[in-house]
Design a protein that fits this description.
single chain, Ribonucleotide Reductase Protein R1, domain 1
């Protein structure tokens, strides 16, 4: 497959794949990224955003190489895309109810 510079085919293709696995996508992402999501339970704080908080298991795994930057980026992008899709779906549903 030939792509233009900077193209990210997984962004759309993987998102739609996960949405087909489960209507809201959460189950598909959780299954595909079980290794990533298992790190969350090891964070010091239950509401850790995995950004600047001390005791973040995700940051530690990234620093040690246990979790690759590419995998974390893919997970983060998919979760963001899912959130945008859910927001758009909710807004669309709200508009049609009026």
């Amino acid at each position: 497959m030939f792509l233009t510079k900077g193209a990210k085919p997984f962004q759309v293709a993987w998102f739609h794949f996960f949405c087909r696995l489960d209507f809201n996508g959460d189950t598909g992402i959780a299954d595909a990224f079980a290794d990533v999501e298992s790190l969350f339970a090891r964070c010091r704080f239950s509401d850790c955003r995995h950004d600047t908080e001390p005791g973040c298991a995700v940051k530690a795994a990234l620093a040690s190489g246990e979790l690759s930057r590419e995998r974390w980026t893919a997970y983060s992008r998919l979760k963001s895309e899912l959130a945008r899709e859910e927001t758009a779906r909710a807004e669309s549903s709200h508009r049609y109810r009026k």
